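Bench log, entry 3. Co-assembly request; chain sequences pasted below exactly as received.
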Amino acid sequence: MELNDFLTLLTAITIAVSCSLLGCFLVLRKTVMVGDAISHSVLPGIAIAYLLSSSFNSVFMLIGAAIFGVFTTLIIDFFHKKLKLQEDASIGITFTWLFAIGIIIITLFTNSNTDLDQDCVLFGELSSTFLDKIIVGEYLIGTRSFWMIFPVFLIILVFILFGYKGLSIISFNEDYAKSLGINVGFINLIFMSLVSVTTVMSFESVGAILVVGLLVIPPATAYLITNKLKRMLIYSCLLAITSCIIGFYLSILIDVTASSIIIVVSGAMFLFAFFIINIKKMLNI
Amino acid sequence: MKETIIYFFTDSVAFKVLIGITIISATSGIVGTFSFLRKKTLVGDAIAHSLFPGICLGFIFSGTKDPFYLMSGALITGWLSVWLIDVLTAKSKLSSDTSIAFVSTFFFAIGSVLLSFISSSTNGNQSGLKDFLFGKAATMSNEDINVFVFLSLIILLIVILFFKYFQLISFNKEFAKSIGIKVNLIEFLLSTITVLTVAIGIQSVGVVLTSALLIAPAATARYWTNNLPKMLFYSALIGVLSGVLGVFISSTKENMPTGPWIVFILFFFTLMTLLFSSNRGWFSMVRKQRINRKKMAEENVLKVFYQLAELGIKNVTYSEFLNKRQMDTKELTNTIASLIKKGFINNDFQFFKLSEKGEVEAARIVRFHRLWELYLTKRLNFKEDHIHGTAETIEHLITPEIEKELLKELKFPKSDPHNKIIPY
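Structure output for the full assembly:
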């Protein structure tokens, strides 16, 4: 395996695993569309951070993303619970508005030479991430995109390991969790800011729309296969890794963008699982 | 401002854009109303993403950017996405939002694979395809406008012809099924017009923002009226208004995107309506709640005065009151002050006493309370220790008409289940 391929694949897998770990809880809590909304509405955060630092500076981006991610969930909640607008409409109105603001900022304040354009926001470019290598002394220690996502990945891991009990209770029964004295609001806030930080750290590589695919598809597939949360987490990571590897090699083989073919592969695995399960059901009856 | 308006009516390109946007916004407003009422607005988002592979397929098969082929492809994948969402939600344990998110990203990924396939295999003729993703409000051609007008007329015709069925399905699907309406067929028609609307919508504002055109006008109109034809009209109106304003604002500066401005204005309309609408808006709700709470507090205080008078205490002090009923001290002093102002209570040094007017009012509330308790035990067979709570709530809501019926039903009783006298 070539070094560049390895570096690209490593980035892809780290992103995919981070997304699918978080995605499991989104799927269980039926808040996938909130995750979808967040992945779109961090755009103004990215744009503002970009304007302030005139580069994809991680620290600014993280702060911008976390603020807008939390802001999104707060607005959706405000519309839904305080203003009594039905939930699907609250989500739809909020993320389109923030995305629109993001686009307006980008077109108003950036010129055509900048790296930040609508194309990269929607698609991302995984196969060029290896160009930006970080070299310390004489040693290559990875690509910049890898070092953007890796700390987030570690935080997610720690968050899930230490908050496992709380997260699992919240995912299955929020009211019960409240009655046990678990600080549901606080955990929600951290969780949603993790979702937004993850989408931002990966949007350069996979784009805002496809990152939703990584959040949803592997966890949804795992959810079809198993009823246990621990297994669901493990399966969805395995599925994510497999689709990254298959997708990456396919992308070299037929010369298409890697991030989209990864989603197509994992979507195909989902549909396969769906058909098998339904055929099984039919045969049993 | 005047120059801008003149510019729009004299410059044929700008005028065309204005016409195109007006048609698209009005159609989206009308079709979105049905999606909104069926709580399926996010399906519109999924459809928008799913049109992308269809457009690419249309291009691959025809080799041209003829809107007819691209639209046909879009229609097919759009239908497919609606169907797949339904199947996934019905045949697996996934919730509908997971199915929607799956379908939208999966289809979009297929589209972007196809697009990169096209750009590597053909020689650069595909440049216009991306317009479908980001919208091209500012560069609409005559041909585009013709297609928009044609499709919008079809959509409108379908809405007019099947209005009754759409209305039934939007409000009560089960009922529609039970009276023998072919629900599947009507839903198929509804998804068809939604797909068509999204297909023309993404050309003006792009994939991500199209769902705003469907959702926001309908959500706003819902707060203005309860009547479906009116709601459709308002929704279309709000859509057109934001569309036109968006076009004007974005034309003030070079390279300003039209779609995002339209969405921005739509959001502003929705937010203002949700906050300030006179009957269902947030502020009027808060005001109504405050008035209700005050009225209930006043009635409760009067009731306690009456009960204390029954025990022989006519001149009441704060501490005697609080012994009888727990209440926030500040709320109590405020309520008593307001009752004194209204002339229900007289103040004499530190004693408070019901006025004649206050006695009548207090008797009325106590009467409602006790009548209701009696009704619960006699007619609904409630246990005597279970009735106080509900009576405590309902006493504030009983109207003179209900009182009359209760009295007739209970044959003008003398005392309540706790053997207390019912005052008349």
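The mean pLDDT of chain A is 86. The two ends of chain A are 48 Å apart (CA to CA).
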